[in-house]
Amino acid sequence: MSEVGAAQRRNMEESQLLMTELPALTTGTTRGGALLHRSGHYYHLHQPHLAIPAPQNPSRYNCARAPSYMNGGKKLCTYVQGIPRHLTDKRKEDNESTSAHISCLYPEILALIFRYLSVRDKGRSAQVCVAWRDAAYHRSVWRGVEARLHLRKQAPVVFASLTRRGVKRVQVLSLRRGLGDVIRGIENLEALNLSGCYNITDAGLTNAICKEFPSLTQLNLSLCKQVTDGSLSKIAQYLKNLESLELGGCCNISNTGIILIAWGLQKLKKLDLRSCWHVSDVGISHVAGLNPESAGGNLALEHLGLQDCQRLSDEALRHVSAGLLRLKSINLSFCVSITDSGLKHLAKMSSLRELNLRSCDNISDIGMAYLAEGGSRVSSLDVSFCDKIGDQALVYISQGLFNLKSLSLSACQVSDEGICKIAKTLHELETLNIGQCSRLTDKGLYTVAESMKHLKCIDLYGCTRITTSGLERIMKLPQLSTLNLGLWHVR
């Protein structure tokens, strides 16, 4: 019995010695929400009121009930009894080496994680703690993000914060202050979106753009209806590195403004003139560099938007084919004066890949024949709501436009016969929009399901003559991901 009692006393002494080396969480070791570790370093508690007090009688704890007080993934103290010191030290080292907590991650790793969050969650992460804020403000986290701002008063703090995070793309949702505050307040601004800011005037743009801004490459002035040719003069003079200019809905822009664009913006790759009703064939000749006044034109253009430009005719397409040899896409939807003859010119453009002729009332089957016979390499064609397009157009398409991957025929006068023609030849087609083609039946869908194995998207909205049988065939396509039925009713 004496030997047993001596062993118990030795164990108790070792236990007491261990507890003197591992600091307990007492009020003496806390300093304003911080805990002193035995190494002498302070560990800040984000919620000090949740700290668990040290037990009054440590000897009551055994190895099966050894609680750990954690802060930031580090064990601050552990109470053990009846375990030799060398085993306890080894277990402690193993626990510290394998402990993992997000606050232990390097800022670079945190920044890598924050890159995958939404813009709102990125902002929330920066409010958690100082370490997260510093990581969330890393420039890599905000690369490519577009800030959306309501500028109702001076906001230098906002601009400084955006600059610190490296934000270079800004969309102004509403504007009461001067536009110059935005351009001058954000260093190295690359993209400025002012779409829908109706109160922007020539005077405001003139005051804001009063020196060169070489970093600005994208400018969107869509629906800024007070903007006129006067603003384009400043833009052409000081924003010479622009690659994208959107003027959709700027109905006061005329051919004079187009001359300024052709003269000053030689690096332009995208130009949107949607609903610029005063622009005519003469203006397009300046863009194409075919007029001496244009000083070369915008020959680097790859995307040209001419939607709803009512004064354009086939002559404009002749200018485009002659001068814009790098053009990849052109939008001519709602250009009612464009006819089949204009498509002869576009068919010669080897670089053209996307052609939008939606609601061009004077485009017919003959126009499709010109495209097919001219060797056009378009991969996306939209002739929706062209009511002169019928089955014969699909015959021509099946005989010449073999590169098509997207074809839109909504509300055209096509039937099963025409759909079967393209289904048997356009095997690489991925998108087929045939909504509101009321003559289409299950027969056409059967052929589509059998032949178009690469089809990913099909629009059957308003095709009232198809039944569940045809629909079931379509749904068996191996790569189909989008099926639009709209108000279609199963019979």
From TrEMBL:
InterPro entries linked: F-box-like_dom_sf, F-box_dom, FBXL14_F-box, FBXL15_LRR, Leu-rich_rpt_Cys-con_subtyp, LRR_dom_sf
Entry keyword annotation includes NAD: no
Lineage per the UniProt record: Eukaryota, Metazoa, Ecdysozoa, Arthropoda, Hexapoda
Residue intervals of the F-box/LRR-repeat protein 15-like leucin rich repeat domain: 186-322, 327-448
KW Glycoprotein (keyword) present: no
GO cellular component: SCF ubiquitin ligase complex
Name under which the protein is recorded: F-box/LRR-repeat protein 14
Signal peptide: none
Domain of life: Eukaryota
Domain F-box, first and last residues per copy: 107-143
Pfam families: DUF7885, F-box-like
SMART domains documented for this protein: LRR_CC (SM00367), LRR_RI (SM00368)
GO biological process: SCF-dependent proteasomal ubiquitin-dependent protein catabolic process
Keywords attached to this entry: Ubl conjugation pathway
